[in-house]
Write a structure and sequence with these properties.
The chain is 33% helix and 22% strand. The chain contains 15 helices and 24 strands. Pfam families: Pyr_redox_2, Pyr_redox_dim.
């Protein structure tokens, strides 16, 4: 038996970060640049899911699909365009090129250049104060678990014997799907459904519940109508009861007794936290099916250990992982009190039209605030820029209490860009007057946000008899 003392000496950094995705990389880079010693452990690809399988490749594919679809509405602008010919291999090359352009920022070489010790292996806790990875023992002052999440595989009979794709494999298919079946009508499922439909596939989406269930139903209906108009079949309230191989493709038996055939099957039925390899019991870190349990300061049941991003069961967004990284740095390095308030976290579904949300939806806000709630609205049909671009479907909806916005829903062109104004307004606790009083260039889409905010004051000005009396009185006085 090998003498325990004959191996390499333990590494004793200030911080050991497990996982090189959005949260882990942000913590490692920030800590190293502020003078802390850092060990970064990653068993898979640097950059994590977002760079390699999620945000980046999906948006690159959507961009290609948007250009392929441009001919469909060209006649409305007086243009005649031939339908595009899609080169699937070239489309995937575009996706890979986008990833490759971003990858150096997340690379092992960059982080080693910052002074971070990078170990490419899976980490495993061996005690509350130590991790082993790559044949090394790491005894850090603080640990950060940032291992992210993976596609959830639902217990559908036959799925374990049937070839299927997830977001981790769909961007590497050697042939374009001809008939794609998507299980799950959340953001990932619908983004991929629209992208592949625009690139030439027949697409059927099966959703056991309501499509875009976490979003405002009125806003979701705008997105679903647009996708259906493009030929995406979206079946709500229909579950996949069984799947099987069928020749070179697949077949899905539905809960209402039908069989739907396809060449490819995409499972987009949620995410599951990556905790299986960590041996959390040895660290005394509590967790459940949702992920690692954390307090408001992002600490686990082991006070030396933080958990950030998807793995802690909170909102599964790259930007939220980055925000949590900043909070953890303040706590771990400077011992400052932090609180991971989730009231001002925006999210976007990048279909066309886009759907963006921050804070509570209308239904959630009504349940919480009752009669104190004001719901303000501006339709893109009344926005001149949207009209000029023939993209006038959708609206801005603002939930406000006592003159302050608490939640905003935007569905329409570039909603993901437009939500930034409201993210600032809500996080800074600005009044509606700050948005209503903006002077914006004309014509811009963001004027819809200004109009929605101004509606709060219009009702008070134009419907108030005292205002009219004051105007008439001042007129008589000359």
């Amino acid at each position: 038996m090998k003498d325990a003392g004959s191996g390499p000496a333990p590494l004793r950094p200030d911080l050991c970060v497990i996982g090189a995705g959005a949260a882990g990389l942000s913590v490692a880079a920030g800590a190293a640049q502020m003078g802390a010693s850092v060990v970064l452990v990653e068993g898979a690809e640097m950059g994590g899911d977002c760079l390699n399988h999620g945000c980046v490749p999906s948006k690159a594919l959507l961009a290609a699909a948007r250009r392929a679809h441009a001919h469909a509405g060209a006649a409305r602008f007086g243009l005649r365009m031939d339908p595009p010919r899609v080169d699937h291999a070239a489309v995937l090359a575009h996706v890979r090129e986008v990833i490759a352009a971003i990858a150096p920022h997340d690379s092992q070489e960059r982080f080693e250049g910052l002074g971070v010790t990078v170990i490419r292996d899976w980490a495993r806790f061996v005690s509350p104060r130590a991790v082993e990875a790559g044949g090394r023992r790491i005894e850090a002052r603080r640990f950060v678990i940032a291992t992210g999440s993976s596609p959830a595989v639902p217990p559908i009979p036959g799925l374990d014997e049937t070839p299927f794709e997830t977001n981790e494999t769909i961007f590497a298919l050697d042939r374009a799907p001809e008939r794609l079946i998507v299980i799950g009508a959340g953001p990932i499922g619908l983004e991929m459904a629209q992208a592949h439909r625009r690139l030439g596939a027949e697409v059927t989406v099966l959703e056991a519940g309501r499509a875009l269930a976490r979003d405002d139903p009125e806003a979701a209906a705008v997105v679903l109508a647009a996708l259906r108009a493009e030929g995406v079949v979206i079946e709500e309230g229909v579950a996949a009861a069984r799947v099987r191989r069928e020749g070179a493709g697949v077949a899905v038996e539905t809960s209402d007794g039908r069989a739907i055939g396809g060449t490819h099957l995409l499972v987009a039925a949620g995410r599951t936290p990556n905790v299986g390899r960590l041996n959390l019991a040895a660290a005394g870190v509590a967790h459940d099916a949702r992920g690692v349990k954390v307090d408001r300061g992002l600490r686990t049941s082991n006070r030396r250990v933080y958990a950030l991003g998807d793995v802690n069961g909170g909102p599964q967004f790259t930007h939220e992982a980055g925000r949590q990284a900043g909070l953890a740095l303040r706590s771990a390095l400077f011992r400052l009190p932090v609180r991971a308030d989730r009231a001002a976290i925006p999210w976007v579904t990048y279909t066309e039209p886009e759907l963006a949300q921050i804070g509570p939806t209308e239904a959630e806000a009504r349940a919480a605030h009752g009669a104190r709630l004001s719901v303000l609205r501006a339709d893109f049909a009344a926005n001149d820029r949207a009209r000029a671009e023939r993209a006038a479907e959708g609206f801005v909806k603002v939930m406000a209490v006592r003159g302050r916005p608490i939640g905003v829903t935007i569905v329409g062109p570039h909603a993901g860009e437009l939500i930034g104004l409201w993210t600032l307004a809500i996080s800074a606790r600005l009044k509606l007057s700050a948005v209503a009083g903006l002077t914006l260039p004309y014509p811009t889409l963001n004027d819809a946000s200004r109009q929605a905010a101004a509606a709060h004051y219009a009702a008070r000005l134009f419907g108030n008899p005292w205002i009219g009396r004051a105007v008439r009185l001042l007129a008589r006085l000359g």
